[in-house]
Amino acid sequence: MKSKFEYNRTAITEFILLGLVETPNLRPVVFVVFLLSYLLTVGGNLSILAAILVETKLHTPMYFFLGNLSVLDVGCITVTIPSMLARLLSHKHTVPYGACLTQLFFFHLLVGVDCFLLTAMAYDRFLAICQPLAYSTRMSQTVQRLLVAVSWALAFTNALTHTVAISTLNFCGPHVINHFYCDLPQLFQLSCSSTQLNELLLFAVGFIMAGTPLALIVTSYAHVTAAVLRIRSAEGRKKAFSTCGSHLTVVAIFYGSGIFNYMRLGSAKLSDKDKTFGIFNTVINPMLNPIIYSLRNPDVQGALWRVLMGRRPLA
């Protein structure tokens, strides 16, 4: 005979995701908006990637990291939005327990790599501006690939840790998630066992995964700012800052939405505001990245135009 603990642990086999809206009349509008957002995001990021691959002028460390970031953005939105669109079409809001944890794992894996890649890009700008003579050796192809590989390894460890930790919780009561994808705060609210250790783990690992990279980014740009201010030419200062502006904008949006999304873990009830931050994490950030990086970059704009028009890159 099973104990009460064993029964409770296997009682919940699926969750119900309420989605973005509960009003049936609004669902077609939501479907069209997010389908267009998904297509725009995938198309924009793949265009950036194609431009970087075919344009020899963009075969530099900064654009190598940007190409990897574009792949991550496509993956991040693909983990969450297509399944949400499928539920809107089928009117079926249930998601199996295993599928929920799988989505959780891949979402945190991709976001984690994103976090470390942004740090690598800040380090690249630091070397290019503060130590230009050593740039070619300290940011060689081997170093670039090593930074990407380490980013994936650390993010994989983080995602696996949270997934295994959440799988030890018991879900035996309500199984309705007021969100459009599975994430830690929402699952913590549904657990009928204590989540204190899980929340401590999230904060501890989050400090390493997000706090340390953010500190490195701030330190890098503090040195960059000091170096740029020593440039006597106003045109030189403007050019140096322009190479960093896009990256800083992406960092601000990425960390801003992430902090607000996870800082409310201790609240008694999660609200629709969490869906808004979820949209930023899964849709807005990946959609804005190609726009931000190409908006004030004539090299990327020219490469994108040639890719879209089917023209050969300039020699």
TrEMBL record:
Role summary:
Putative odorant or sperm cell receptor.
The UniProt gene name for this protein comes to LOC106987355
Select a single GO molecular function from the record's annotations and give it: olfactory receptor activity
Q: How does it sit in the membrane?
A: Multi-pass membrane protein
Kindly give the Gene3D superfamilies that the UniProt entry links to this protein.
Rhodopsin 7-helix transmembrane proteins
Which source organism? Acinonyx jubatus
Q: What are the alphabetically sorted keywords of the record?
A: Cell membrane, G-protein coupled receptor, Glycoprotein, Membrane, Olfaction, Receptor, Sensory transduction, Transducer, Transmembrane, Transmembrane helix
Q: What name is this protein filed under?
A: Olfactory receptor
What GO CC annotations are associated with the protein?
plasma membrane
Family of the protein in this entry: Belongs to the G-protein coupled receptor 1 family.
Q: Locate the G-protein coupled receptors family 1 profile domain: which residues? A: 44-293
Principal location listed in the UniProt entry: membrane
